[in-house]
Description:
This protein is mainly alpha-helical.
Amino acid sequence: MTSDARPGAPARPGSARRARGTAGQAAVELALALPVVVLLLLGMLQVALVGRDQLAIELAAREAARAAAVSADPAAAARLAAERVTSLRPTSRQPWSNGQRTNQVC
């Protein structure tokens, strides 16, 4: 019974069911909304990864062209520059000094 009900008055029909059903309603709403939210988050992650990969490819091409232009062996220098840019190992910013190729790890 509610606090504003008159003494002796019958309880409103469905009031107990309404209070009990709100937890179920929230669970259903979460079950319906959660897949949409997860898909949006995964889509945003995928867009970020594609953008990162495009930047890595552009940087690899730029570094390979620069390395091939200043090296005595352009093909090997371009291949080494592309591997250096796309790898996870940190290397020095100027691996070619005076036409010499060196693998200096910072």
